[in-house]
Amino acid sequence: LRFDEKVRVVVFKSEVKGVFCAGADLKERAKMDDAEVGHFVKRLRNLMDEIAALPVPTIAAIDGYALGGGLELALACDLRVAASSAKMGLIETTRGLLPGAGGTQRLPRCVGIGLAKELIFTGRQVDGQQAASMGLVNHAVPQNSDGDAAYQRALALAKEILPQAPFAVKMGKLAINRGIEVDIASGMAIEGMCYAQNIPTRDRQEGMAAFREKRPPQFIGK
């Protein structure tokens, strides 16, 4: 996906009705020794980092349970859409664990430190509406009879992104992701570097031309 220039947006959904991702299989985990657990979680953390590093926008469609590592997967995405009835939480402390695949880092960046601490310390589960109110998800929608309301809303969101200039969107994502980790002066420099890469693109010229000619732009990602 990272190297496929035809890919503009990636939507993560589950093929299992009622469950986005239920997290680690604790029965499987119980059979591992300490070293194996550490290796497993490190690989899982690396996977989430790879998802977060995808250059195109990513959307998690949460139509059911997103627990533990399942919510960490959703947090690794840029945007999250949930059914109102979905349940999500970093429940690791209820099992004698702590989030180990990015949850302690991405949740505070998403909802703020105080709320993230409360959710992680208590292992509390929240529904889609509660998640929307705290900024954990971008949109909460009523579940439909097919059980894929979040996926349908995620597709609609993806279709809003698709017409926009692909390279500009990629640079926007890069600037946000890198800039949020540094002070604002450094962030401005990062934005400047990303903007400079966008200046010579054919899409920027097309955007200007389309504006002058009062027509929709036809972006090609170059």
TrEMBL record:
Top-level taxon of the source organism: Eukaryota
GO biological process, alphabetically ordered: fatty acid beta-oxidation
Keywords associated with the record: Lyase
Pfam families given in the database record: ECH_1
GO molecular function: enoyl-CoA hydratase activity
Keyword Lyase: yes
Gene3D superfamilies, per database record: 2-enoyl-CoA Hydratase, Chain A, domain 1, Lyase 2-enoyl-coa Hydratase, Chain A, domain 2
GO cellular component: mitochondrion
PANTHER family: ENOYL-COA HYDRATASE DOMAIN-CONTAINING PROTEIN 2, MITOCHONDRIAL, ENOYL-COA HYDRATASE-RELATED
Family according to the record: Belongs to the enoyl-CoA hydratase/isomerase family.
Protein name, per record: ECHD2 protein
Gene symbol of the encoding locus: Echdc2
